[in-house]
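Lab meeting minutes (informal)
Scribe: AK
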Amino acid sequence: MDQYASALLAFPPQNEPADNETYHKAAMLHIQRISKMIKERPKDLVAFSAELINVIDPAVNSLSYLAILHALIFPSLAAKVPQNFILEKLTTFLMVFDGRQCRYGGFPLLDVLDAVGNGRLLPPSVAVECLATAILKLDPSGTILTSSHILLAKLAYDTDNIEPALPVIEKDIVYYPGMANYHDAQYPCDLELPPPLYISKTSGLTTLLKNTMVLEYDLLCGMMYCARREWWKARKAFERVVTFPTKDTGCSKIMVDAFKKWILVSLLSEGRHCNTPPPYTSESTLKMFGILCRAYISFATAFATDDVEQLKLEVQNNAQLWVEDGNIGLIEEVMASYQKWRVLSLQDIYTKISIAEIRAQTKSAETGAVLNKDEDVEALVQNMIIAGMLNGVIEKNDDGTKFLLFLSPTTHLSEEEMAREIRAHTVRLRGLKDIFTATSQRLGTSKEYIKWVIKDSKRDKTSDGQDLTLTFETQIDDEDLMGGIPNH
């Protein structure tokens, strides 16, 4: 056993080298030694596993710890070692492992993450937290979508353990496995590397993703935000599905499902459905949406009016459709929010309005009638203010009449709060800098952009004075722009 312990504790050296080349060579040599040990004497490793794993620090000797865990878990949990012991060690490892070391973890690490993400080893609440932590240890920026993200999203949504997954799903995805112009780096341990240079199919830390997997991930993210009633975030997630590049002038069922939900959460987040989707949505896809989602568009049109009877009629006529699409819950949320948005629309006309007038001018979509008494309207308005939906205060005149005073968004912001807002926006803009740089580099080297530049250089310059509507987005070929993601 001492021989095995000595080998497993050999990396990293006590005086860990700072330069990437030395670290890389030491890591590769250690992997070769461990692989040889597992290949020649796998039974010995399992036999001494309990003793070995207790003398190895998962946060320091992460690769060695991973090797023992993998030997204990695959092809099945070791029969001679207590299962609770193995799972306890697995949980500890996923929470504390060294992200730099585990860039060399490859397929064994991916096997472990897959097993956890499939819900085969740990309770869902533990599995989601461990998987989310592991993903961000490998890529603290959270900007590359991996096969582990897909498992995390499915497990979190299906088991209603959404909260622990939020640190991952709230990250902006910039990279995808197998993207053009990104190859495995010479030294994966370099902490300055963008994630696609060390997280790839060849490094073993992810599999390639099919188009449907990317779409499913964003759809699940949107549904998780819906479960938390974070409508704006849900809208952005569904929008990523709706605007996904397509071939053959069509759209998938997932895109249609997302478009329906996108309409509903748009009503919840903004009080209206935007009739002009993002400009990079293909025209043919929009036509398909218009045909397949006609009932939702009609419902959204009615929602934007004061005709509550027409809105109720739209809901009743398509009752079966809402159920079949799995959107009855969102429809009910939209109907419950209708009167709130009608109250908000009054600020376009009034700066101050009595509670009695609000009651007379707005109706509940759930009943189709005005509220029974002024106190009900006051409670509705107070709830809107508390939830942050409405910026206003309720005042009372000397005669007892109560009014709603609409306030400007910055009325109650102190100097300190304003400074905090500015700092938050500054941090956000700094975070966008790397994303902008990576996107610009990718666009500049894409064949679609180069073709457009050549075509634009040959364009008849006499047309410069015209109202040109053809831009790069409208002239690119109808093909998958997610370089490296295989079609399915």
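Next up, CB showed the second protein from the same session:
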Amino acid sequence: MKRTWLRLRQISQGFWFIPAVMTLLALVLAEAGISAEETYGVPDGLTFVYGGGETGSRSLLSAIAGSSIGVAGTVFSITIAALSYAAGSMGPRLLDNFTRDRGNQLTLGTFIATFAFALYTLRTVTGSEDQPFVPHYNVTFALVLAIVSVAMLVYYLAHVTGSINMTHVANLLRDDMRDALMRATLKEEPGQDLAVAPPPEFWAGGEVLHAPRSGYLQLTDNDLLLRRAEEADVALLLHVRPGDYVFPNSVIAVGVPRLPADVIDALTLGDRRTVGQDLEYSVRQLSEVAARALSPGVNDPVTAIDIIDRFGDALCSLQDRRWPDGVYHVDHVVRLVVPVTDFVGLAKSMFSMIRQYGKGSPSVMVRMLEVFSITASCLKDAERRAVIRWHAELVREDALANIENSADRADIEARYRELLDTLANGQAAEVLKAAEHTVQQTQGNRAN
């Protein structure tokens, strides 16, 4: 079922889907208007309905059809130009964000639907003396569509200009990344212990599943895998997670003592990575924008700094969230173990590429250390703060090795010391909190 919904979502997000639906709807409305006029005619009280004859209606419909398809070609050309700019400056993987944009789809669909409506209606206009026919309802509605098309053209010009703005793109990608993070993590609950996966020896000698073909793992139906493992009374270990490229004949699962039936049905492979369960894909889209901005041909450190700010935003939002352990039990028996993205992998995907490409840019390195300090003050978990410190040490090392100006090097050192102070204050606060908790427990025991 999840695979079906994934395919339906991919189809509905296609650039052609909304224009196709609007065109079909326009043809249905055109036929309905013609049938209504043939059956009931036009009441005298409807003064707003077009009242011209055959020649006027034919000219009007021809003008609407010709102009709408002409403007549709212009809109399509502008869209292609915007896509070319986006691919060149932000990366080809961002093209999906532009083709999925509902504003672009609705604009193109409006013009094509107007053309189809006017052309379909035009064929019914007859001027014979025996039985002349003018579809007054349809001509009136075609005029309304023409006015709507003009409004959509004005909207489109403003929309496409804003959609290729780098800040707008960064915010869209940030929202996608934040939604993916919220889906991938769970609300932190006090006193909750993480489940522990069986040791590697447990899986030794199990039945191995090899990949039947290659492709990116787009979706894993964990509910189906858990149900199949419980029905077969086995334990199942997956070696791949959404976003991984699966090579043909590579090991993707192990079952102990055997594999459950139809494991491959719960794994959806495709030719490209998709936003959804693949958390790191949303992160890598932003990282690629920053890496391209730091290339010598573009040399746009401001964009890279904007991306770093978005990453800090995302990490701070995880303060009260925990990562799933990937271990599923049924009646206290391990049935399924799946690999999951953790904080270490997330931070590496965010900052490693930017650090490697921006190590010679003082402004980028300084901002990374500043964001690390802010993030360290937001995060309370000691392991996560250790990850932040590790990345800060890498940034400091690369920056000092590639930046020669003494003032810039002093800025790097100052920001790094600020980070260390922030981390030290956080550790002191944790120690104080633990001591207070111990004192409260001791006083409670004495009272009892």
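CB comment: DSSP finds 15 helices and ten strands in the chain.
No objections, moving on.
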